[in-house]
Design a protein that fits this description.
alpha/beta, 12 helices
Length: 354
């Protein structure tokens, strides 16, 4: 029966392609999830009494996927960092690294750059394994004059220098997918996602453009060649691998990147993605940006290890990150081993297996 007036929200086509399919439940090599959030397993992100009081059962579950290490991005100051180090990292050596996230509310007070640097140095003294910079830097954080603080604000130079002196990486998230900065109209490829989460939209004159944020990031990493930066989400520009290669990675050997939450973008350009991942095999880290338990790891493994075509990039129906399927890149074994583990071990020595 014809349905000429079928609403788009009800349209759910089923592919009739008959293709090889490989289910990969465990990584071919032991891997480190270098972009994870253990706070998503906590009852209260800000509480010192963490629900995940013993992560041993979690780690045993991750062993079934051959995930042997996790980088927890949620060492929030002042309340969560100490307990996370005491309960997660120290009882399980070699399994969990913890990054600190600063209390940016001090930016409304005079002397905030010095206060942030002092916070970081205190976190280092406790045993933090690096610094996480959230996307709000450049987007929403404002100083004592109510001026937006750009990503490359020179007042933050002592903070980046402190990370360099400590020999610790800075994991930085700058900007969200490009579509989040575009009008929410019929041309927006993430219309479904933004309709469900309109608070994820950064479109409007009150925000910097996506392009300006990326230029700020480029200037930042270029001005601090002695600081190691792990740019989240394929340099935060997985839609333009040429930009990530030409502007971030090739000119700046201090820059690494992770693939977290971006196999939806990489997998719809598998030929370009494969070339990119092989070229930068020494600078790309495996990561998911997902709760450490859940159904996501097999999707990542299938993308990285097989040449399967036209498969979902996640368990959601419809897919949360766009109305498309992805194809695998079938990386060579020597590349897989670096992306899965070896590159992360360089940035987070506490997770080394040897």
């Amino acid at each position: 029966m014809l349905q000429p007036d079928l609403p788009l929200k009800d349209y759910a086509p089923i592919s009739q392609l008959v293709l090889p399919s490989h289910q990969v439940t465990a990584a071919r090599y032991p891997c480190i999830d270098a972009h994870s959030h253990l706070s998503l397993l906590d009852e209260d992100r800000g509480s010192p009494a963490l629900r995940l009081s013993d992560p041993a059962p979690l780690l045993r579950a991750l062993d079934t996927h051959n995930v042997t290490g996790i980088v927890d991005l949620d060492g929030f100051l002042p309340h969560r960092l100490g307990p996370a180090l005491d309960l997660y990292k120290r009882p399980h050596p070699g399994r969990i690294a913890v990054l600190t996230t600063l209390d940016w509310s001090v930016c409304r007070e005079r002397g905030w750059p010095e206060a942030l640097t002092a916070q970081f140095r205190f976190a280092v003294s406790l045993g933090a394994d690096g610094l996480k910079i959230p996307k709000e830097l450049g987007l929403t954080y404002r100083d004592e004059t109510d001026s937006l603080i750009p990503v490359d604000d020179p007042r933050l130079d002592p903070l980046w220098q402190s990370a360099s002196e400590a020999g610790l990486p800075v994991l930085i998230h700058t900007a969200d997918p490009v579509a989040f900065f575009r009008p929410l109209d019929r041309h927006n490829e993430r219309w479904d996602e933004l309709q469900a989460r309109p608070d994820w939209s950064w479109y409007g004159s009150q925000y910097p453009s996506f392009e300006e944020l990326m230029e700020q990031l480029v200037r930042l990493v270029g001005r601090h060649p002695g600081t190691t930066f792990q740019t989240a989400h394929v340099g935060c520009y997985a839609e333009n691998l040429g930009f990530v290669a030409e502007r971030l990675l090739r000119p700046h050997p201090n820059v690494f990147t992770d693939i977290s939450e971006r196999i939806a973008e990489l997998g719809r350009q598998p030929h370009a993605a494969r070339v990119f991942l092989i070229e930068f095999q020494d600078r790309v880290l495996f990561g998911t940006d997902r709760p450490a338990l859940g159904p996501w790891y097999p999707y990542y493994f299938r993308f990285l290890e097989t040449f399967d075509d036209c498969f979902p990039h996640g368990p959601e129906d419809p897919p949360r990150q766009g109305r498309w399927n992805i194809s695998g890149v079938g990386l060579p074994d020597e590349v897989l081993e670096k992306i899965y583990r070896r590159n992360a071990e360089r940035l987070y020595p506490c997770l080394r297996s040897d």
